[in-house]
Amino acid sequence: MAELELDVVGIGNAIVDVLSHAEERFVNERGLAKGSMTLIDMEQAEALYAEMGPAVEVSGGSAANTIAGVAALGGRTGFIGKVRNDQLGGIFRHDIRAGGTLFTTPAADEGPPTARCLIFVTPDAQRTMCTYLGASVEFGPDDVDFELVKSAKVTYLEGYLWDAEPAKRAFVQAAEAAHAAGRTIALSLSDPFCVERHRSDFIDLVENHIDILFANEAEITSLYQTERFDEAAARLNGKVEIALLTRSEKGSVVVYGDQRYDVPAVSLGPLVDTTGAGDLYAAGFLYGYTQGKDLPTCARIGAIAAGEVISHMGPRPEQDLPALVNEHLRNV
Predict the structure, then answer these.
(1) Four-way CATH pick for 6-13+61-112+135-330: 3.30.1490.100, 3.40.190.10, 3.40.1190.20, 3.30.465.10
(2) How would residue 191 be classed by pLDDT, with cut points 50, 70 and 90?
(3) If you average pLDDT over residues 115-125, what whole number do you get?
(4) How far is the CA of 158 from the CAs of 26, 30, 44, 154, 271, in angstroms?
């Protein structure tokens, strides 16, 4: 495997998303945290699924969405994540491989079923996620193909996976293997919910193992416990090599040492579903980065990919991303 050089390898939860439109009342009556992610158990997952309206099933998972986006842009990709040998595990494996990504993690023969995320999209296009992690909770160092990690220019870690001790060890060992091979490690903070639960661990991880950090405004201000975005952004100077901070319709900010680049958001039509916006922004940036583009251009590619994914239901691109990128970069 070592002789194969990939652009980006993702490590994260292997999840099948189940998306459905829902009214505000549905979310409120069930006490769900609107616009955020809540972990649920199998019993809750079954009950919520029974109450959902018509739904669309599509392979998801934050890092997997990012990897699918990099592949759609033309990047060489791999993914590491745990599924069970069940129906949803088969769907996940098929979908990510069909997009051109190398996925060789063996399916578990026993234990919890493949993870699923029930996503309720309200009329304002916000997505409320209820995630049953299933097989992902048993992910550990034994599931990591370290030769695959060493073959990648960038290994991208998903903050959502940072819960169980084996996954934490897997992250650190993957980062050490990548750095020993002269490679780069990127991390997404994933969700304010994750930051609040793992703040001290995340700060340690960011400062000691991460080269490229992705976070949205709520996540980065939560990490540094400040209400001021600019203050949180300034705190990153010297902590990571590059930080990418997304601000929804305000665009994104690239922090590189004491340099800062503000990049506008890209609209490709009506806002339909924000699921996957941050994931595809990371995809666009990492694709540009591994192709040697300058940082503002990488961020613009991220904005284009994010703009595409929020124009339709589901967390993975539907349009021709390379064509969109070429069109929009010509007009800059």
Answers:
(1) 3.40.1190.20
(2) confident
(3) 92
(4) 29, 27, 24, 13, 25
